[in-house]
């Protein structure tokens, strides 16, 4: 028997995001834009996000590589909203960004 994750309420999400730097809740998903010194740094960071998501078997809803910026968004399509897995992935990406920019 497979247990499905529960979709979090907007209140739960907003509370969790208080401790998650840079992320915001919008239109059923959480998202953040990361800034970089160069375009190449942003591409390298996006590649690391892709590798991390494969390892976790939980993929972003969107990853947008822009000029010196990378936008990332998460939602769990299976339940139609944000779950604990999305917030854990956002936490991991913040740690990745911190290590990347140190």
Automatic annotation (TrEMBL):
Catalytic activity of the protein: (4aS,6R)-4a-hydroxy-L-erythro-5,6,7,8-tetrahydrobiopterin = (6R)-L-erythro-6,7-dihydrobiopterin + H2O
Record-linked CDD domains: PCD_DCoH
Record-level GO BP terms: tetrahydrobiopterin biosynthetic process
Catalytic activity, EC: 4.2.1.96
InterPro entries: PCD_sf, Pterin_deHydtase
MF terms (GO), sorted A to Z: 4-alpha-hydroxytetrahydrobiopterin dehydratase activity
Keyword annotations: Lyase
Taxonomic superkingdom: Bacteria
Keyword Cytoplasm on entry: no
Family stated for the protein in its record: Belongs to the pterin-4-alpha-carbinolamine dehydratase family.
Protein name: 4a-hydroxytetrahydrobiopterin dehydratase
